[in-house]
Design goal:
Blueprint (H helix, E strand, L loop, with lengths): L5 H35 L12 H25 L1 H8 L1
Length: 87
């Protein structure tokens, strides 16, 4: 990522932010489905019996969203190197 120009860096940051938002929305929907599933099938899935794929899927999507936001912030804050190359 050190060889990106300012325009390329902005594009990458925007793409990562859109990816993060998409994963966040999907994680929110999966969380709602997991909560409904736990309420409906508490004997099979829940805090006392272990969690299922809905719970792990929702957690994975939310962790992916946070990772995308963190990477976008890291690439965006490292713009000093790109600015010095563009000049």
């Amino acid at each position: 990522m050190d060889s990106l120009t300012v325009l390329e860096r902005r594009f990458v940051v925007g793409a990562l932010a859109v990816l993060g938002l998409t994963l966040l929305v999907c994680g929110g929907v999966a969380t709602q489905v997991a909560i409904a599933h736990m309420a409906r099938d508490a004997a099979v899935c829940g805090p006392l019996n272990g969690h299922c794929g809905w719970c792990y899927g929702a957690t994975g999507l939310l962790i992916g969203a946070l990772t995308a936001f963190g990477l976008a912030a890291r690439v965006g804050w490292a713009k000093g190197q790109a600015t010095s190359r563009a000049a």
